[in-house]
Amino acid sequence: QVQLVESGGGLVQLGGSLTLSCVGSPIIFRFATMAWHRQAPGKQRELVATITSAGTITNYANSVKGRFSISRDNAKNTVYLQMNSLKPEDTARYYCQTGTYWGQGIQVTVSS
Fold it and tell me: Which of the residues in the chain have pLDDT under 50?
């Protein structure tokens, strides 16, 4: 079964850190650009970060540049999103995505 499964979300205080993980089925992961998106209630979905298949090129939304870092471990079929200096406006459901495949998402809540 082809799937993407996120983990690592939760509740964190202002200024804290969290690392999200997304494990993908090998058939869709190994040669794919991976992305993290997020969606807060009442807001449009936002592309947060992307990483190419070899991990050599990354891109970030302006809202997270300098605070978030995307990486991947192809041996583990896993992509990560390290989130530092978290703000209440980072509160959202975070989704892992590649091509037409999406994870179910995981909640991140930042309290002030």
Answer: none
